[in-house]
Amino acid sequence: MSARMIDGKAFAAGLRARVAEHVAALAAEHGIVPGLAVVLVGEDPASAVYVRNKGVQTREAGMASFEHRLPADTPEAELLALIARLNADPAVHGILVQLPLPGRMDATRVITAIDPAKDVDGFHILNVGLLGTGQRAMVPCTPLGCLMMLRDHLGSLAGLNAVVVGRSNIVGKPMAQLLLGDSCTVTLAHSRTRDLPAVCRQADILVAAVGRAEMIRGDWVKPGATVIDVGINRVERDGKARLVGDVRFDEVSAVAGAITPVPGGVGPMTIACLLANTLSACCRAAGLPEPRGLTA
Ligand code: NDP
Predict the structure, then answer these.
(1) What letters, b where the CB count within 10 A reaches 16 and e where it falls short, cover 224-233?
(2) Closest residue (by CA) to atom 15 of ligand 1?
(3) From the CB of 170, is ligand 1 less than 6 Å away?
């Protein structure tokens, strides 16, 4: 392996510590405690683990955590009524509705019901529009974490060729907007892209957000490129369950200049950025300056 490992676990721990410092200062100087409300509908086991982790890390950062667990057969109107109460609650600065929602619910309608100022996931159409027009927005946590690691590793991103593989609303599209905001030349690739390996070989920055185990091979990568692997894929190897990314790590790490591992790369940054967004939302609500370096 020649690539430098970008240690997302350590980076996320540093970010959480910075958030906790600011939270302590907010309490000491202004008597304000940032609050994050997480809503889980149904019993999806993976979602339950995420929600538990979010609660633990929120409390560890010194913030207030409000968890709302609703049965899978909750009428959508009841969920919307809960969101309206959280919107009006001054102790709640961030609201996150864990996705996916049970099939009968309209996720767009539910997300649109969240006050955009409290939309710490950055999925509300207003925040999407603000990000797309280069204005101050709530930025989705996973691409925000990728951007922070890229800036930390590369310094200025201006003028670099960036290729993002995957065009979802939660990762690929906001990632492309953020890279464009940092003056990269951005290509957004997807399942219909022609000759994807050749497109990827143009990239100084390659972000893989596809959901296909080890799809990106060593000969798709420009020597020295920085590779960010967002993918989380469960596979079985030698009879054991394992997590792998969208990038074939052994091959790509021999060619790239730097790479995020899976696990321990992008994953830990997502919750750390959720805490950073909650702190930013709290500062904005209180009319206080936002801590630097915690958002795009
Ligand atoms: P989606 O399924 O919503 O989107 C996948 C994207 O990949 C689509 O745009 C799709 O293209 C594209 N794609 C699929 N197959 C190919 C292919 N063969 N070649 C090129 N592009 C392809 O996934 P998400 O964006 O939600 O997630 C992507 C991955 O990131 C998943 O593994 C997910 O688990 C992981 N993830 C990790 C997070 C973290 O915290 N680390 C957070 C969120 C996601 P098209 O639009 O044309 O169908």
Answers:
(1) ebbbbbbbbb
(2) 191
(3) yes
Per-residue model confidence (pLDDT) at position 219: 98
Domain of 254 in residue numbering reads as 141-268
Residue 1 clears pLDDT 90, i.e. is over it: no
Given 126, 161, 187, the domain boundary residue is 126
Residues 165 and 90 in one domain: no
Q: Is 178 exposed, middle or buried (0-12, 13-18, 19+ CB in 10 A)?
A: buried
Element containing residue 69 per DSSP (H, E): strand 64-70
Number of domains in the chain: 2
Q: Are residues 115 and 146 in the same domain?
A: no
Q: Where are the beta strands (DSSP E) in 98-253?
A: 161-165, 185-189, 205-208, 226-229, 233-237, 240-244
Is residue 47 very low, low, confident or very high in pLDDT (cuts 50, 70, 90)?
A: very high
Per-residue pLDDT tens for 11-38? 999 999 999 999 999 999 999 999 999 9
Report yes or no on whether pTM surpasses 0.90. yes
| Residue 98 known to be catalytic | yes
User: In this structure, what CATH number is given to the domain that contains residue 150?
Assistant: 3.40.50.720
Give the pLDDT confidence score for residue 294 in this predicted structure.
92
CB 172 less than 6 A from any atom of ligand 1: yes
Domain end residue (candidates: 100, 126, 152): 126
Annotation says 222 is catalytic: no
Predicted pLDDT at 263: 96
From the CA of 62, how far away is ligand 1's center (Å)? Answer: 33
- Is residue 118 part of the annotated active site? The answer reads no
CATH code: domain of residue 65: 3.40.50.10860
Residues 95 and 200 in one domain: no
User: Do both 177 and 238 map to the same domain?
Assistant: yes
**pLDDT tens digit sequence for 73-105:** 999 999 999 999 999 999 999 999 999 999 999
